[in-house]
Design goal:
The protein has 3 domains: 6-102 and 206-389, TIM Barrel, CATH 3.20.20.80; 105-203, Elongation Factor Tu (Ef-tu), domain 3, CATH 2.40.30.140; 394-487, Immunoglobulin-like (Sandwich). 25% of the residues lie in helices and 25% in strands. It has 11 helices and 25 strands. It has helices at residues 20-34, 79-91, 205-222, 237-251, 266-275, 285-297, 311-314, 343-352, 362-366, 379-389, 478-487, and strands at 6-8, 38-40, 46-47, 57-59, 95-100, 104-105, 110-120, 123-127, 132-139, 159-165, 170-176, 198-200, 226-229, 256-259, 281-283, 319-322, 357-361, 394-397, 403-408, 419-424, 429-434, 443-446, 455-456, 462-467, 471-477. Helix 1 links the parallel strand 1 (6-8) and strand 2.
């Protein structure tokens, strides 16, 4: 996906009106024209209610087809509308990424009596009470679907823990007797196998077989072009590697796959890539936190290190860069929304540099009406500039704690390509940067329209590029400037 752009095409607070798949179809032409090559759609299967965003999974086989949990449709629409949206996007040349959620189940149809031990939520390897019988929500009968597509029924033996005893009302983390947490998971809280709901036991042979069978069924239904894997730090690394291998073998394609391993610890991401044979990409969470910290620092962040310690810096071919997502929105578990003033700077980094595959957030592109959050200023322009002009050799100028930048020299295949980016988290400033002798005498304009006067490139290929304080300037040729203003 060289020089392509992906979009996370949803945000947490979309209305629960069942019209989202229809909106996807209606926007397909605009998505294609914007320069977005791939869209990551939300989880499409039935959750515990019609309002479920998709991560409280009840039935993976119900894509909005069966009367379950008080609804036939999902939050986004019906199964037929989902399939039609996928087909429409693909017909427009847009790759569709399906969100895969396998870690847990929520909204069981009834409880079962299970022997379990309470463990310390801060150290799940530490038992803090005697084994006892609890009443757990672990029986999934799927009365609305019956045996259509699959006759597999989830029972307590298919899970290794939960967080609620329905008999007593006790909350905590309970590990089922005779079960153990997956050994190869993240080490936060001692062992971070357990996340929420009824935790799926991927060590169980029946579970492994069923999840592989479901993956093959899902591909045959949808024929997606790629995958986004949810919460992989909580799932056996070896299981996830093997499941993906089986899925790709069935699809007959090494579908592009990006996994969410939510950790700012770069070494943890590198370990995951090693265990999974570098067969997938990961979201660059450390880079996200660089943006978050820089925005919160209000001018005291050392901009020389804005991309330091990121996955993109070390393994750009396995990095998906992003600024924010549904989990970092206000009120969510991973709330770390990048400050509004810094977002244009952050998007310039992920969209206009050569390394990593950028993922643009729906809430940044369109705004988040539920929170009165406006779209990111000039984000549409930057997506267009990436498509048209962000090519060629890159030269970095991360040599000042306040003002940093880079240039792209362009190439012969893309007319008027090449650009210079300068940003500041403090005051106004300028920097002399080399963009290439082929531009000698050319006039460059700031497409972000913060700097009015043009820059004339000297005979050696240098220009004195400026930026407004707490802003980013994106300098392109005069011809490119005129074209972008017409297109956007």
């Amino acid at each position: 996906m060289e020089n392509q752009t992906m979009m996370q095409y949803f945000e947490w607070y979309l209305p629960d009106d069942g019209l989202f798949w229809q909106r996807c179809m209606a926007q397909a032409d605009r998505i294609r024209e914007s320069g977005i090559k791939a869209v990551w759609l939300p989880p499409a299967y039935k959750g515990s209610s019609s309002a479920d965003v998709g991560y409280g999974v009840y039935d993976l086989y119900d894509l909005g087809e069966f009367d379950q949990k008080g609804t036939i449709r999902t939050k986004y629409g019906t199964a037929e509308e989902y399939k039609a949206a996928v087909r429409t996007l693909q017909e427009k040349g847009i790759w569709v990424m399906a969100d895969i959620v396998m870690n847990h189940r929520v909204g069981a149809d009834r409880t079962e009596k299970v022997r379990a031990v309470p463990v310390n939520p801060e150290n799940r390897n530490e038992v803090i009470g005697k084994e006892r019988e609890i009443e757990a929500w672990t029986a999934y009968d799927f009365p609305g679907r019956g045996n259509t597509y699959s006759d597999f029924k989830w029972r307590s033996r298919h899970f290794d823990g939960t967080d609620f005893d329905a008999a007593t009302g006790d909350k905590g983390v309970f590990r089922f007797a005779g079960k153990k947490w997956n050994e190869e998971t993240d080490h936060q809280f001692g062992n971070y196998d357990y996340l929420m709901g009824a935790d799926v036991d991927t060590d169980d042979p029946e579970v492994r077989e069923e999840l592989s069978r479901w993956g093959r069924w899902y591909y045959d239904q949808i024929h997606m072009d790629g995958l986004r894997l949810d919460a992989v730090k909580h799932i056996s690394f070896e299981f996830m590697r093997d499941w993906l291998r089986d899925f790709r073998a069935h699809a007959g394609s090494s579908l592009f796959t990006v996994a969410e391993y939510w950790s700012a610890d770069l070494s943890a991401l590198l370990h995951y890539l090693e265990v999974t044979d570098y067969s997938l990409s990961l979201f660059d969470v450390p880079l996200h936190y660089n943006f978050f910290n820089a925005g919160n620092a209000e001018g005291s962040y050392d901009m020389r290190y804005l991309v330091s310690g990121s996955l993109t810096e070390l393994y750009p071919d396995n990095a998906v860069t992003f600024v924010d997502n549904h989990d970092t929105e206000g009120g969510q578990a991973l709330q770390s929304f990048v400050r509004e003033w810094f977002k244009p700077l952050a998007y310039a980094v992920i969209l206009l540099r050569k390394d990593g595959l950028p993922s643009v957030f729906y809430g940044d592109y369109y705004g988040i009406p539920a929170n009165n959050t406006p779209p990111v200023f000039n984000l549409v322009k930057m997506v267009t500039i990436r498509k048209l002009y962000a090519y060629g050799e890159q030269r970095d100028y991360f040599d000042d704690p306040e003002i940093v930048g880079w240039t792209r020299e362009g190439d012969d295949e893309h007319p008027w390509s090449g650009l210079a980016v300068l940003m500041s988290d403090g005051g106004d400033g300028s920097k002399k940067m080399l963009i290439g002798k082929k531009f000698a005498g050319a006039r460059f304009m700031d497409i972000m329209e913060k700097c009015i006067d043009p820059v004339i490139i000297d005979e050696e290929g240098y220009g004195l590029f400026g930026t407004a304080g707490r802003n980013v300037a994106v300098w392109v040729t005069e011809e490119a400037y005129a074209r972008v203003r017409v297109e956007v």
